[in-house]
Design brief:
single chain, alpha/beta, Rossmann fold, about 15% strand
Length: about 140
């Protein structure tokens, strides 16, 4: 019996407590790698296959919204689901995140079962979209 490879999540955040809490909530279901800056984030994306990005709205060297916009503008990363996970959140921030291509916006502190359910739903949606894109155009109707 083969093992199922866990989805890989890149968590980009500088708050050590937040990183530890998020990893603790996700480690049983996902392989979580971390980045503390946009430079690390982009290196991780080049180095390995990442299935989802959990992104703080503010990293020390670049705004998270700008990172999201850059990822969505690049064909190599445009389909990568981006979830904002942030302590600083207004309705305007949420609107901005979605406008730049995020699939979800979660405010810290988060409820672990709810975060896990939201990520699971985003993975299902992402997998379904990828499956549709693999099908010949005539088979989609």
């Amino acid at each position: 019996m083969g093992t199922v490879e866990r989805k890989r999540i890149l968590l980009a955040d500088t708050d050590l407590l937040s990183v530890a809490t998020t990893i603790g909530a996700l480690k049983d279901d996902y392989h979580v790698v971390t980045a503390k800056s946009s430079v690390e984030l982009f290196k991780q994306l080049q180095k390995q296959q990442i299935d989802m990005l959990i992104l703080e709205t503010s990293l020390p060297d670049m705004d998270g919204f700008v990172i999201c916009r850059k990822l969505k503008a690049d064909p190599a990363t445009a389909s990568l689901p981006v979830v904002f996970l942030t302590r600083v959140a207004t309705i305007a921030d949420e609107e901005r995140g979605f406008a730049f291509g995020a699939v979800d916006f979660v405010t810290k502190p988060f409820n672990a079962p709810t975060l896990k359910a939201r990520l699971k739903n985003q993975f299902k949606l992402s997998d379904a979209i990828q499956e549709l894109q693999r099908q010949p155009i005539g088979a989609r109707c």
